[in-house]
Amino acid sequence: MFIQTESTPNPATLKFLPGQDVLGVGTADFPNVEAAASSPLAERLFRVPGVMGVFLGSDFITVTKAEDVEWQHLKPEILGSIMEHFQTGAPVIIGEAEEGHAVHDGPDGEIVGQIKELLDTRVRPAVAQDGGDITFHGFERGVVYLHMKGACAGCPSSTLTLKMGIENLLRHYIPEVTEVRPVAV
Q: For the domain that residue 128 is a member of, what is the CATH number?
């Protein structure tokens, strides 16, 4: 198995590409070891000292490291853990991956549908290239609330991405949108 790595805009995260499906469909975010109980792969990665977060995408794994650890020391152990996991044949996740967007019941259903469509077609594919995901959380009084996951969570450029990229895109296509804000997961 040959695993490629790619840097992300977030210096604390690295994207690992095992050359095969990880989840296939959906995503799974494990911001800490406690959240990783449903993923044998994430649990294995959290056993590596210095791993602070794991995000699983369709064909990639994004790992977030502690500030005081260097990638040159961490990367070989992570690569070994990923290889070991796939060689065992164990499932990546037990149960279903996250669908992504929160369900919205209310009078703004049509607007929310447009927001989700734009996120799915224009935003999420680009963000996945950087090892993360952005999903809809809510819409209230013109404000769109989004979850930042994987490499996007804690990324120094995430505020710029939200304000200059996503907010401008949504405001351009959907006049009812006035602002975009991140929510803590």
A: 3.30.300.130
